[in-house]
C-alpha cells in the first residue's frame, strides 16, 4: 500500500470495501486519508463502519475505492465499484490481465497497472496483537510465488483511445522492517 501511495495520487476520502482486519486501510489512514472500511465479514478488529456485502451497496462511501478484493470476484467488484465511484484500485495477481471475461473493464477503464518488480511478501505487514494494538509484523518474511500489481480503473478513462500505462514499481523502499 505504501508503494501505491508513492506512485499514485489518491483523494482524501477512500473506501475499502473488502477491508478484512484493516491492513490496507491502516496504511492509508497513516498517510492522512479518511478511510471508510466495510466488509462482508466482521473479523473482530473493530475497524468496520458496516458489515455488508459490497455488491449490495447502491451509494458510494467515497470517490475512490482501494481494495484487495477476493480474487474469484475481482471483476465483479471492479464493475460494481465503477458504478459507484470514479476510481477503483485493486491489488490483484498480474494474471488478472488474461482472459476474455474481463475485457469489458480491462479494454475500457484500465488506466494504469503498477507491476511489482519483486514478489510481495506473503505475510501481512500489520497484525493485531492479543492486547488489541496494531503492530508491524515481526515474524519471518516469506515471498509470494505469484506476481502482483495494483490495477487502477477510472470510470471516465477510455483505454481504447487513451491506452493503459504500465509502470514497474518496488515495494521494498516503502516497507518497514523488511
Features:
3-stranded parallel sheet; 5-stranded mixed sheet; 178 residues; 19% helix; alpha/beta
Structure report:
The protein is α/β, with parallel strands linked by helices and 178 residues long. It is built from five helices and ten strands; from the N terminus they run αβαβββαβαββββαβ. Strands 4-5-9-6-10 form a five-stranded mixed sheet. Helix 2 links the parallel strand 1 and strand 2. The longest helix is centred in the middle third of the chain and has 11 residues. It is globular and about 50 Å long. The mean pLDDT is 89.
Estimate what percentage of residues fall within beta strands.
25-35%
Largest sheet: 5 strands, mixed
Compute the gyration radius: what is it?
16 Å
| Average pLDDT level | 89
Strand order of the largest sheet: 4-5-9-6-10
Instruction: Give the topology string: H per helix, E per strand.
Output: HEHEEEHEHEEEEHE
The share of residues in helices is 10-25%
Tally of individual helices: 5
Distance between the termini: 15 Å
Number of DSSP-assigned strands: 10
The shape is globular
Q: What is the multimeric organization of the chains shown?
A: single chain
What is the compact description of this entry?
The protein has 178 residues and is an alpha/beta fold.
Secondary structure: elements and pairs:
Blueprint: H1 2-7, E1 13-16, H2 23-30, E2 34-39, E3 50-51, E4 64-67, H3 74-84, E5 87-93, H4 103-106, E6 110-116, E7 126-128, E8 134-136, E9 148-154, H5 159-162, E10 165-169
Parallel strand pairs: 1-2, 2-3, 4-5, 6-10
Antiparallel strand pairs: 5-9, 6-9, 7-8
